[in-house]
Amino acid sequence: MTRGRFITFEGIDGAGKSTQIDRLQALLVERGIEVVRTREPGGTPLAEKIRALLLADDMCTMSETLLFFAARAEHIARVIEPALARGAWVLSDRFTDATYAYQVGGKAFDGAAVEALERMVQGQLNPDRTVLFDIEPLVAAERLAKARAADRFERESVDFFRRVREAYLDRARRNPERFFIVDAAQSPEDVSRALLTEAQGWL
Ligand SMILES: Nc1ncnc2c1ncn2[C@@H]1O[C@H](COP(=O)(O)OP(=O)(O)O)[C@@H](O)[C@H]1O
Ligand SMILES: [Mg+2]
């Protein structure tokens, strides 16, 4: 059995990730590919409990980072690895790039500590492809204000989201073969077109 592909979707809140993953999932399923759609933090019953803590409870950035990686360890062991091993494609709404963007970029947490945790928790596992939905934070905030009540992360300042955006772009620049950056300020149809065209090349 060939191993499946591990595709992750990144970008600030309100960039349009969830909307577009739905469309890509439909395309892959049409092609007869088994797709496992998942998200971080979360993806397993325990990791979803950790998610609820992370999105609601105030905590220091150290605890926050460790909880993200605890949830990630569960997610990898119980969902991501088994799916890839049986040949399924895993589409994950966020993964470790988000830790670099939010905790390291947004909150100035120690990047070397995150690298150590990444090695410990992931071993050799890395996304095959990462789609970065890049958008100006004010535009994303406007969308979110219309869409849903903000969680603990979504309540952060515009300056915070500017740092997160820059950290994401920096990761993309350092890993150009893995990242595909899409201009997420376009209409949903234009974003889909760009994403689905890129995805044809993965098949
Ligand atoms: N390209 C777009 N243009 C305008 N609004 C969008 C676009 N993509 C998504 N939206 C809307 O913006 C809100 C946030 O989108 P969502 O997909 O939930 O973003 P994310 O998952 O990145 O937080 C939703 O109400 C969604 O319908
Ligand atoms: Mg979403």
Structure write-up:
By secondary structure, this protein is an alpha/beta fold. The chain is built from 8 helices and 5 strands. The protein has a single domain (6-200), classed as 3-Layer(aba) Sandwich (Rossmann fold), CATH 3.40.50. Helix 2 packs antiparallel against helix 3 (61-85), helix 3 packs parallel to helix 5 and helix 4 packs across helix 7 (158-174). The chain is globular. Bound molecules: adenosine-5'-diphosphate and magnesium ion. The site of magnesium ion has 3 residues, from helix 1.
The CATH architecture comes to 3-Layer(aba) Sandwich
Quick one: how many beta strands?
Answer: 5
User: What is the CATH topology assignment?
Assistant: Rossmann fold
Rg value: 16 Å
| SS class | alpha/beta
- Strand % is 5-15%
Bound molecules: adenosine-5'-diphosphate, magnesium ion
- Output the helix-strand order: EHEHHEHHEHHEH
Quick description:
With 203 residues, the protein is an alpha/beta fold.
Tell me the layout of helices and strands:
Elements: E1 6-10, H1 17-30, E2 35-39, H2 45-56, H3 61-85, E3 89-93, H4 96-106, H5 111-122, E4 129-134, H6 137-147, H7 158-174, E5 179-183, H8 188-200
Parallel strand pairs: 1-3, 1-4, 2-3, 4-5
Helix pairs in contact: 1-8, 2-3, 3-5, 4-7
Bound molecules: adenosine-5'-diphosphate and magnesium ion.
Provide the descriptors you would attach to this structure in a database record:
binds magnesium ion, about 55% helix, 5-stranded parallel sheet, about 200 residues, Rossmann fold, binds adenosine-5'-diphosphate, alpha/beta, 8 helices
